[in-house]
């Protein structure tokens, strides 16, 4: 197979027994310490390319690799999982709760365990959704562009009239961790009514809304 050009890496604990590759540098030091304390040689890709291709990742995996930490922008399917298996790898971890980019069947076929990171960004992402809701209802982005373009000439009764959220209905598709946290913020903070759709009944959320929790 044609190898992509060599990719720049940063190495931690070079004498570690297990070779672990991270396709990106990630925040903080705790994950690095956790790996190096557990006898891993960690190689972090430092290539200044936002999204790595499958060929780039094949080059990073190389001939011997025990595990990879990857990102949601990467295409983790049969090609990468079979390469990881050939390199002696047993684990892949996706730095995300969602795993749309991971072909779990292919991972299973190749005996690679897959990890994700649920829970850590629940409230953060719900706050971001609440921010976007307010920005849309209150036309913050449009108004900001208007001001910066120097178009503001004084207050007018119709200028950027927004929508009141209080008493309106918010719709949530997928009332899981993030959807439910967002729903609670909109109900508690803005006294909105809720309508949701999910494959399962969101019992805790329903109890929260009806005040029975
Ligand atoms: N910055 C971001 O934008 C950001 C950050 C973190 C997570 N996410 C995304 O948010 C998603 C949700 O994360 P979570 O922790 O709340 O997961 P979760 O598993 O707790 O919630 C997902 C919910 O969606 C429901 N669902 C699945 N298929 C459905 C369908 N076809 N119709 C309706 N509902 C369906 C599930 O039953 C579940 O309740 C992740 O998949 C991830 O891609 C985005």
Beta content: 15-25%
Q: Kindly report the average pLDDT value.
A: 95
Biggest pleated-sheet summary: 6 strands, mixed
What's the shape?
elongated
Oligomer: single chain
Query: Under the CATH scheme, which architecture of the largest domain would be assigned?
Result: 3-Layer(aba) Sandwich
Q: Which fold does the CATH topology of the largest domain refer to? A: Rossmann fold
Widest sheet: strand ordering:
1-3-2-4-5-6
- Total number of domains: 2
- Class of the largest domain in CATH? Alpha Beta
Bound molecules: nicotinamide-adenine-dinucleotide
| H-E order | EEHEHEHEHEHHEHEH
The low-pLDDT segments are none
First CA to last CA: what distance?
A: 59 Å
Q: What share of residues is helical?
A: 25-40%
CATH H-level superfamily of the largest domain: NAD(P)-binding Rossmann-like Domain
How many DSSP-defined strands? 8
SS-based class:
alpha/beta
Number of helices: 8
Radius of gyration: 23 Å
Keywords: Oxidoreductase
Protein name: D-isomer specific 2-hydroxyacid dehydrogenase catalytic domain-containing protein
Domain D-isomer specific 2-hydroxyacid dehydrogenase catalytic: 33-142
Pfam family, one: 2-Hacid_dh
Structure commentary:
InterPro entries: D-isomer_2-hydroxyacid_DH (IPR050223), D-isomer_2_OHA_DH_cat_dom (IPR006139), D-isomer_DH_CS1 (IPR029752), NAD(P)-bd_dom_sf (IPR036291). Keywords: Oxidoreductase. It comes from Paspalum notatum var. saurae. The protein is α/β, with parallel strands linked by helices and 213 residues long. The chain has two domains: 107 residues, Rossmann fold, CATH 3.40.50.720; 91 residues, Rossmann fold, CATH 3.40.50. The protein is built from eight helices and eight strands, in the order E-E-H-E-H-E-H-E-H-E-H-H-E-H-E-H. Strands 1-3-2-4-5-6 form a six-stranded mixed β-sheet. Helix 3 links the parallel strand 4 and strand 5. The radius of gyration is 23 Å and the shape is elongated. The N and C termini lie far apart (59 Å). The chain binds nicotinamide-adenine-dinucleotide (NAD). The site of nicotinamide-adenine-dinucleotide has 17 residues, from helix 5 and helix 7.
């Amino acid at each position: 197979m044609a190898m992509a050009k060599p990719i720049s890496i940063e190495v931690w604990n070079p004498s570690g027994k297990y070779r672990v590759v991270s396709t990106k540098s990630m925040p903080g030091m705790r994950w690095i310490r956790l790996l190096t304390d557990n006898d891993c040689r960690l190689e972090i890709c430092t290539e200044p390319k936002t999204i790595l291709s499958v060929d780039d990742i094949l080059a990073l995996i190389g001939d011997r690799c025990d595990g990879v930490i990857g990102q949601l922008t990467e295409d983790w399917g049969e090609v990468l999982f079979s390469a990881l298996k050939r390199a002696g790898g047993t684990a892949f971890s996706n730095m995300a709760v969602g795993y749309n980019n991971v072909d779990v069947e292919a991972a299973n076929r190749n005996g690679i365990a897959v990890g994700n990171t649920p829970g850590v960004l629940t409230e953060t992402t719900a706050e971001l959704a609440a921010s976007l809701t307010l920005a849309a209802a209150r036309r913050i982005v449009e108004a900001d562009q208007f001001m910066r373009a120097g178009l503001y000439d004084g207050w007018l009764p119709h200028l950027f009239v927004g929508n009141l959220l209080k008493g309106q209905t918010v719709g949530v598709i997928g009332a899981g961790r993030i959807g439910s946290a967002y729903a609670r913020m909109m109900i508690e903070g803005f006294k909105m009514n809720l309508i949701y759709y999910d494959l399962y009944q969101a019992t805790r959320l329903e109890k929260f809304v009806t005040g029975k929790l």
